[in-house]
């Protein structure tokens, strides 16, 4: 079990903790072991396998994006509630996270390491930051007899996920965490893994994995990533959408931004001699429709191409943007004149990483 040592000269107080504390700065080196904790109660061990016990408040209630240690402490002191907490991305070490907590002894900062889509704190592994928060809210003490109680919400909504677009296609190597993708695919970047690799979520499929940095370019922040789907019409009005579906006939469909609920989407479907509309709610990075949650907008469409969206009917024929519109997409896809050089660099980096892994295995 890790121990946190605090106090001034001549005063040493020790409390057992269930996480590794960053003593001076969240980007300082770990000074304590992060071994398995033999003192955990059985129910604490089982908690990570119990989905209901890992339930946490919504991410927008406690995630603050990139934030300095000082700013985090200011926000926590403003609450004056023991048990208050927030999660932030380290401003000194982008891609790493910090759980900042106001407890009986003041404010403590716990480093959370992100690796390949998993999150580690004190030697424990979690599938998401939400699971981590749920665990230290419902299952286990963070400090002795202290748990997360009051989430501190950011003063304004946070949207800090960096987005990139593929400028070249790529086919993954077998038995790796790499992703296969096409030119124009969009990804949400979670963290830089080093050696030229990024850990991302593919917007089109919702799949997580590794991509090579030189195969992508930064994406315009104002662009809706769903523009990659040819059945998504960001610029048509409601009346124009209806006219397009009438011309296309029964079974046709398209998606456009919602007028009544900005940030959400409307699925237009020609069925039973009328145009029906279905709201698709955007919640964080996911999409909600019909009581179901989807990883991406394309997953919504794919489900209702196979399952009935209206009794006796499925989505049949997408109404696609014309070729001129597709060519004018505001996606930053620069002309790639050195494709072979990029692929060669990728192969070299992969071989170097493989050599390093081999050396580690031999040792």
TrEMBL record:
GO annotation, cellular component aspect: cytoplasm
InterPro entries, per database record: RasGAP_SH3 (IPR035652), SH2 (IPR000980), SH2_dom_sf (IPR036860), SH3-like_dom_sf (IPR036028), SH3_domain (IPR001452), Tyrosine-phos_adapter (IPR051184)
SH3 domain mapped to chain residues: 159-221
Family annotation (Pfam families): SH2, SH3_1
Stretches assigned to the SH2 domain: 62-152, 231-319
Superkingdom assignment: Eukaryota
UniProt keywords, alphabetically: SH2 domain, SH3 domain
MF term (GO), any: signaling adaptor activity
Gene Ontology terms describing biological process: anatomical structure morphogenesis; cell development; cell migration; enzyme-linked receptor protein signaling pathway
Protein name per UniProt: Ras GTPase-activating protein 1
Gene that produces this protein: Rasa1_0
């Amino acid at each position: 079990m890790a121990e946190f040592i605090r106090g001034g000269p001549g005063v040493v107080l020790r409390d057992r903790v269930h996480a590794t504390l960053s003593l001076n700065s969240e980007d300082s080196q770990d000074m304590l072991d992060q071994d398995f904790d033999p003192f955990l109660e059985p129910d604490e061990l089982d908690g990570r396998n119990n989905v209901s016990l890992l339930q946490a408040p919504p991410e927008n209630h406690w995630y603050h994006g990139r934030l300095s240690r000082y700013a985090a402490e200011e926000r926590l002191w403003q609450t004056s509630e023991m048990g208050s907490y927030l999660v932030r991305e380290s401003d000194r070490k982008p891609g790493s996270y910090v759980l900042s907590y106001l407890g009986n002894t003041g404010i403590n900062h716990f480093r959370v390491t992100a690796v390949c889509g998993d999150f580690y704190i004190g030697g424990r592994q979690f599938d998401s930051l939400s699971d981590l928060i749920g665990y230290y809210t419902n299952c286990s003490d963070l400090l002795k007899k202290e748990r997360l109680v009051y989430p501190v919400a950011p003063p304004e909504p946070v949207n800090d996920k960096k987005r990139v677009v593929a400028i070249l296609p790529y086919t993954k190597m077998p038995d790796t965490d790499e992703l296969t993708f096409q030119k124009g695919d969009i990804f949400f970047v979670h963290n830089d893994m080093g050696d030229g690799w990024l850990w991302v979520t593919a917007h089109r499929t919702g799949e997580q994995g590794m991509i090579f940095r030189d195969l992508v370019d930064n994406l315009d922040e104002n662009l809706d990533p769903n523009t990659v789907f040819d059945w998504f019409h960001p610029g048509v009005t409601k009346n124009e959408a209806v006219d397009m579906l009438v011309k296309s006939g029964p079974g046709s469909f398209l998606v456009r931004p919602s007028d009544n609920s900005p940030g959400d989407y409307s699925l237009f479907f020609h069925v039973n001699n009328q145009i029906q509309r279905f709201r698709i709610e955007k919640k964080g990075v996911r999409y909600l429709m019909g009581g179901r949650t989807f990883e991406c907008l394309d997953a919504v469409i794919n489900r209702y191409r196979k399952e009935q969206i209206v009794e006796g009917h499925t989505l049949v024929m997408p109404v696609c943007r014309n070729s001129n519109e597709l060519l004018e997409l505001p996606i930053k896809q620069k002309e790639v004149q050195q494709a072979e050089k990029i692929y060669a660099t990728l192969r070299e980096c992969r071989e170097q990483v493989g050599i390093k892994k081999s050396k580690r295995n031999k040792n």
